[in-house]
Specification:
By secondary structure, the protein is mostly helical. It has one domain. The chain is 78% helix and 0% strand. Helix 2 runs parallel beside helix 6 and helix 5 packs antiparallel against helix 6. The longest helix has 28 residues. The two termini are 37 Å apart. 39% of the residues are buried.
């Protein structure tokens, strides 16, 4: 297992949380008016795109931590791949929609969302099964994304706050778990005498 990837995943999870919180603040200070045209709307899109990229790195960290665990297996890998692909699709669609608003992008974004939903569900179940990260990280993976749209009906930036809670928790768990992983002993040189 690569401790550097786990560490990078942990840092990326925390960065994603900060970026999602920043996006929630931007949306409250200067609500979007639909088509991207103001500086605050561009800033929000850039922040969200960076958050999605950080999430992808965090999922890579989860995968690196679990890949040698027998309980992770093919389902864990599939969950990671689907989650990464879903967030990548959403990020690319967000980039394209920032530059040029295309109506058909909503369908593609929905497909990315479905991949995130299924991938996060699989990944959450496997994390519970593998027991390398706290169970609540797995529960957040399972519920945060689907609850986002429902929560947005109550509070316009609730989805971003749920995602911040999810990825911040995962980031801290990856960083704390990385410290608990035994490091290989340093090689000692044998002196010829």
């Amino acid at each position: 297992m690569s401790t550097n990837v786990v560490r990078a995943g942990g840092l990326a999870g925390i960065a994603a949380a900060v970026l999602f919180i920043l996006s929630a603040i931007i949306k409250q200070v200067a609500p979007a008016e639909g088509i991207v045209g103001t500086g605050s709307e561009y800033l929000d899109r850039v922040v969200v795109i960076l958050a999605y990229i950080a999430v992808i790195v965090a999922v890579l960290g989860i995968h690196a931590l679990h890949k040698d665990n027998a309980r992770y297996g093919a389902l864990g890998t599939a969950g990671s791949v689907m989650t990464i692909a879903g967030y990548a699709i959403i990020a690319v669609v967000t980039v394209i929609a920032t530059i040029q608003d295309f109506e058909y992008l909503l369908t593609i974004r929905l497909g990315g969302g479905i991949l995130v939903l299924i991938g996060s569900l699989l990944l959450g179940v496997i994390i519970i099964r593998a027991r390398l990260l706290p169970w609540w990280c797995a529960v957040l993976l399972i519920v945060a994304f689907p609850l986002g749209d429902v929560a947005n009906a109550i509070f316009s930036s609730a989805e971003n706050l749920l995602l911040a809670l999810l990825w911040g928790s995962v980031g801290f768990a990856l960083l704390s778990r990385r410290r608990a992983i035994p490091q290989p002993p340093e090689t000692q040189s044998i002196r010829a005498g």
